[in-house]
Structures are given as structure tokens and as C-alpha cells.
Amino acid sequence: MSKDASAAWKARHKRWLRFVQGTVKAMAAGRKIPVGPSPQPLVFPARSSRAGQPVKVLICSPHPDDEALVGALAFRLRQEAGASITNCAITLGSNLEQRPRRLRELESACRVLGFGLIVPNHPSAFDRVNPDNRQKHPEEWQAKVETLRKIFELEKPDAVIAPHAEDFNTTHIGTHYLVVDALGAYLEGAGHGLFPFIETEFWHQNARPNLMLGVSPEVVAILLMATAEHGGEVARNPYHLRHPGYLMHNVGLGSEVVGGQGGPAFPFPFAELYRVTFLKGREVVAPKPGGRIVKPNEKIDFAALVEGFRP
């Protein structure tokens, strides 16, 4: 190799190294931002009221922090469509001694986002939400189903958000089936038609996402702010600092998986992936084929979004 070629390699490597080091420096800067729960409540600014009854969306979170980590769609619906968002805390974690702390952190995170909060069996939420409990302890599982069914009956949501069935973590998988069982029972009793059921992903990619939701840096900052309110968790594992990288990866992935294989990547920096599907009673009904890309600056219309996937 000639000296000129070697010098060119070194010069190019130096530029890429500065790029990577910039990412590391950004994470280091993030470590200096205080984590929660904040001693002074961080209350999301009041929004102007809209005419008519707001759309009601219930997000069923397997653990405290999931409301923020997969909450981009719910948050954008709140901000742009005037939706009323309520987070239903399916569990507060498996460690009984840590639940009071996790509940305080969750309450703080929901204030940051402007979400309402429901804790089944307050203040403990559910225990053992996993496939094993569903299969081997049907009476215990049915009690949880009935409790959640009553919540759906009381709240009467227009859409429910929950993890997909293969989201790796056993509580995420359990939450999927608990929601399907309870929501299905509610829909059967109410004689409801096709109902929007929106699946999230975090621990494992959904095999068939059909919605790539662009997220602006301003919204990402709010989601991180809420995630950081789970101070005890992010002190153990600073996943909030790595989350922007995950959302950036979604743009490249979603541009092809949702937008079409071989297509160009969209130019916005962050995205969240979802699968919009439907329930008819307890039956999961596949949506209309095809995907949808919603850009960060494209205002969401809830009815139009759902109708675009209705089979």
C-alpha cells in the first residue's frame, strides 16, 4: 500500500472516529441530566380544549417505563388529535419491596407525558402476568382477565395499545394475551364491531409492522424525560441514553419493512414501529395489506389512520 493510500485511510478513519466519539460524548452529557422521580412535579403544560368528545386510548404497559419507551404514538395522538391517553400499569415489576418506588416513578413519568394512570388492584397491579400462569393457573388468570375487563368497561376506550405476542419478555407476552382475553370479553359483552388493537414492539421486532411513525427530536426529548423519571431503573441500566439510537435504527428498518423492500430510507432521524390490527370479540382480525409511513411533521388524524388499515 502506498503512503498516500495509507494516509487517506487514516484521514477517513479519523473523521468517522470523531463521529462515533460525538455519540459517546452525547451519552456522557445525558448522564449529567438529573433522573427522577423529580422532587418538584414535572407537569406537562396544559393544552387547549377541543370541541367534541376526545378519542380515548388506553395503553397497557407490561412494566413501568414501557408507557414512555413505546409511547410515541400515544403521545402524538394526544398532542395532534386531542386524544385522551390513559396508561394502565399491568404490573409494577416482580420485586414486591420495589413496587412503592416504581409506582412513584410511574406517576411522575405519566405527569411528564400528560397521560392518565390506572393501576389495577391499586397499589399493587397484577402479579405473574405470563404465558405459564395463563396455561397452568386458569382460575388466577381469569381473575386478572375479569379485573381488566371491568377497566375496559369503565373506560370505554376507542383503541388499545399493547405488546405483540412475540415480544420476548414473558411479561410483555403475558400482557398481550391478558389484554386480548380481557378486551375480547369486553367487546363481546358490548356487542362492539371491529376494534383497533395496536401492537408495540420493544424486546423483539414484530414480524409484520405496518406503521412507521416518525418522531421529532422535540418529542423524543419528552419521551426520554419521562423515561428518566424511572430513576431507580435507569440508575441500574441507563437505557434512556441509548434509546435515541434504537429509534434511529427504526428509520432504516421501517423504511424497508413498512415502506417496501429496497426503497430509500426516509430522511427524518427517529421512528417507532407498530402494527395496527383489529379485534372482533376475542378474534384478532388481520388489517388491510400494506403499510403506512407517518412523518414527524404530518399531523395525525386518528379516524383516518384507523380507517386506512380497516379490512
By CATH, the superfamily comes out as LmbE-like
Mean pLDDT: 95
Percent range for β-strand residues: 15-25%
**Main structural class:** alpha/beta
CATH architecture: 3-Layer(aba) Sandwich
Annotation field: number of helices: 11
Residue runs with pLDDT of under 50 for 5 or more positions: none
* H/E element order: HEHHEHEHHEHEEHHHEEEH
Number of E strands: 9
First and last CA, distance: 61 Å
Can you walk through the features of this model?
- With 311 residues, the chain is of the alpha/beta class.
- It has one domain (56-307): Rossmann fold (3-Layer(aba) Sandwich).
- 47% of the residues lie in helices and 15% in strands.
- Strands 1, 2, 3, 4, 5, 6, 7, 8 and 9 form a nine-stranded mixed sheet that branches.
- A hairpin with a 2-residue loop joins strand 7 and strand 8 (283-285).
- The chain is globular.
- The chain starts with a helix and ends with a helix.
- The mean pLDDT is 95.
How are the SSEs ordered, and which strands pair?
Elements: H1 3-31, E1 56-61, H2 66-69, H3 72-81, E2 84-89, H4 99-113, E3 116-118, H5 131-136, H6 138-155, E4 159-163, H7 170-190, E5 195-200, E6 211-215, H8 217-228, H9 231-236, H10 239-257, E7 270-280, E8 283-285, E9 292-294, H11 302-307
Helix pairs in contact: 4-8, 6-7, 8-10
